[in-house]
């Protein structure tokens, strides 16, 4: 059974780490507070209260609030997002996706649904990526490497049938997920409250088919 939930994956990654119980509690509380209130509007006192530790313990373990954020991002980038990506790739491999339209509809719907379910947690990551280009490149590289291994056969099959333009695989991925992010980012960062999943999927797939179909 797939986890599908960033908070659960984050807790799993912490449980497998060498961090103490108090350190884990601080990071779990921080993720929840940063997601719901934002990094700038969260105080170390609030983190300590949510983690059921003293504020002195927070400072002793992480020094500053920025130190907490960096400690939080480490498992998020190295364990949580790769795990979530592996779940997605495995799910793609289990589907019957005989044509480009079916493929695009599935992955666009799946990723948008995932973003809706994990909107608050992704907001923390998105805010950091927007400030740190290197972090964004690391995430993109993980995604390209993981998906390219599993999607090569589908990619080649669609091209052989004349359904997909003769572009390098990475260029096609950029087009697909650039289109998806153009819908998701305003929703994730809170600039769009009335997100209509089915309409967004339909529009994104129509746009991509026009651009990627031969």
Concise summary:
This protein is an all-alpha fold and 214 residues long. Helices cover 79% and strands 0% of the residues.
SSE diagram, text form:
Blueprint: H1 6-15, H2 21-37, H3 44-51, H4 55-62, H5 65-94, H6 100-117, H7 119-131, H8 133-160, H9 169-188, H10 197-212
Helix pairs in contact: 1-2, 1-5, 2-3, 2-5, 2-7, 3-4, 5-8, 6-9, 6-10, 7-8, 9-10
Report on the structure:
By secondary structure, the protein is mainly alpha-helical. It has helices at 6-15, 21-37, 44-51, 55-62, 65-94, 100-117, 119-131, 133-160, 169-188, 197-212. Helix 3 crosses helix 4 (55-62) and helix 6 packs parallel to helix 9.
Question: What gyration radius follows from the Cα positions, in whole Å?
Answer: 19 Å
Overall geometry comes to elongated
Percent helix: over 70%
How many β-strand stretches? 0
What structural category do the secondary elements indicate? mainly alpha
Low-confidence stretches: none
Give the termini separation.
Answer: 37 Å
Strand/helix succession: HHHHHHHHHH
Number of helical elements: 10
Overall residue-averaged pLDDT value: 87
- Give the percentage of residues in beta strands: under 5%
Q: How is the biggest beta sheet arranged?
A: none
């Amino acid at each position: 059974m797939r986890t599908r939930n960033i908070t659960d994956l984050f807790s799993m990654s912490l449980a497998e780490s060498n961090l103490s119980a108090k350190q884990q509690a601080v990071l779990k509380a921080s993720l929840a507070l940063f997601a719901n209130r934002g990094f700038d509007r969260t105080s170390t006192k609030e983190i300590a209260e949510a983690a059921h530790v003293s504020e002195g313990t927070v400072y002793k373990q992480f020094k500053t609030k920025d130190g907490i954020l960096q400690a939080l991002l480490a498992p998020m980038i190295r364990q949580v997002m790769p795990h979530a990506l592996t779940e997605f790739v495995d799910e793609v491999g289990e589907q019957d996706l005989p044509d480009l339209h079916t493929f695009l509809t599935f992955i666009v719907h799946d990723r948008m649904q995932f973003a809706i379910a994990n909107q608050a947690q992704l907001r923390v990551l998105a805010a950091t990526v927007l400030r740190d280009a290197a972090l964004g490149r690391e995430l993109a590289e993980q995604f390209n490497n993981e998906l390219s291994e599993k999607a090569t056969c589908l990619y080649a099959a669609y091209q052989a049938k004349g359904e997909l333009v003769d572009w390098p695989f990475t260029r096609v991925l950029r087009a697909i997920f650039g289109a998806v992010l153009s819908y998701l980012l305003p929703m994730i960062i809170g600039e769009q409250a009335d997100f209509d999943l089915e309409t967004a999927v339909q529009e994104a797939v129509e746009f991509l088919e026009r651009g990627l179909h031969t």
